[in-house]
Amino acid sequence: MYFQLKEGSGNILGFKIVGGITKKQKKQICQVLEKQIRESGKIRLFLVIEPHKPMDAESLLFDLNFTLTYSDNIERMAVIGNKVWEKTWVALYGLFSHIRTQYFDRSEIKGAWKWIHRDDLQDVS
What pLDDT, on the 0 to 100 scale, is given for residue 125? Predict the structure, then answer.
């Protein structure tokens, strides 16, 4: 399931994904993204991933793949997780999706919000 985060505003959209998302939920998220892209042009995503059970790379990539359709319109994406291996997979996902992507541990959530709001494209992790 997912929740839209109230901290997002303007061209920044935040979502918390808990225990994975279904195809129907992905469609709902995509409708939100499409609306914001129409309004803002480029968007930034802030995603908090909270699995109910141990997550593997395939599950993580499934939860992120809805962004591929909008990769030309996503300026950057912060992904917040809690596993060291997720950092590598998020980096690979960013490389292959052509979305500027940065992984943050839950302890770095303030830094993640700072990074997503920055006007320049330098990493702050």
Answer: 44
Q: Encoding tokens for residue 100?
A: 């500027």
Structural domain span for residue 68: 2-117
| Residue 56 belongs to domain with CATH number | 3.30.750.24
- Please, what is the average pLDDT of the chain? 85
State phi, psi for 48 to the nearest 5 degrees.
Answer: -105, 120
Prediction pTM value: 0.84
Q: Are 77 and 67 within 8 A, CB to CB?
A: yes
Q: Find residue 43's DSSP bridge partners.
A: 74
Would you give the distance in Å from CA 104 to the centre of its chain?
11
How many beta carbons lie within 10 A of that of residue 69, not counting itself? 13
Take residue 117 and report the two structure tokens written for it.
Answer: 């709001």
Return the number of other C-beta atoms located less than 10 Å from residue 31's C-beta: 10
